[in-house]
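FIELD: query
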Amino acid sequence: MSTPVLTFFNNKGGVGKTSLIYHLAWMFAMLRKRVVIIDLDPQANLTAAFLDENKIEAIWGQENNGSTIYQCIKPLMGVGDIAEPVLQNIATDLYLLPGDVNLSGFEDALSAEWPNSMGDKNLYRPLRILTAFWQVMQMAANKVQADIVLVDIGPNLGAINRSVLIATDYVAIPLGADLFSLQGLKNLGPTLRSWKNLWKKRLDNWADSSEKKSFQDFHLPDGNMQAIGYLCQQHSVRLDRPVQAYDKWVQRIPAVYRESVLDEPAVSDMRQEDDPYCLATIKHYRSLIPMAQEHRKPIFNLTSADGAIGSHSGAVQDAKKDFRQLAIKIAKQIGIDI
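FIELD: result
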């Protein structure tokens, strides 16, 4: 039985995705759920949130097998096989497989093997490469008996992200209060459905192939990509842009989400704050963010010794409550008991 994989994805950047995953990972661990975080964004921003630069430089410089997601799949680009992932134990029940800027070099291999996986023969290698991320995720989860795998990916619709989504059971979509997030949502839904259908054809192709009997222990992901909802980033009010300008885009999200992602009719007069598909509105927490980054901890773990005093202390407790509610809501959506 595989460990559930939850990927946070929007092909529009700047929506607070990495910070969201970072805080949810900590909260799941605090709720005594064992978490493995996989950083599959070649920019490796999530890795930088968990590890300091000296540690990252040491990991990247040594280039040991399995030390990063790239070092896990790098042997596949030659004549080797997937390397055992080496996880960083961040805290109790919290593990990270670091990202790697070199990961972008795997994009071409994934693109090349996509058509090859629909051939009449020699399917094992293309499918092994296309599902390498899933294989690594499950190896990492099995290594520590994880309850959930959380995945961060970059804001694009390229071959790397296609292979990540193939490996994904559940998708959560972070959004901003702007036209660009809305347009990204319109593009994302049809793309997910297309990838899901194309992967189903490849699963059927493998099931009918003569090679399958020779690789009894070779398992493939289902590629469910089930959308569990969206998270709306709270807008920061600017003097030259009134609240109504943001609200205009926010209130269009429920309809676009249903039409583009769920392929369902829009519900008339459904406001974002009443939408059951809205998992949460993520607050800015303003000055708490740089304070938390400085001390390399989530905002809800800040203490008076870190400078969280006065109104900041109250905001820390609010953040803890908000992320706890969100983690419990997501866990319920994906069948994890808390």
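FIELD: remark
The radius of gyration is 20 Å.
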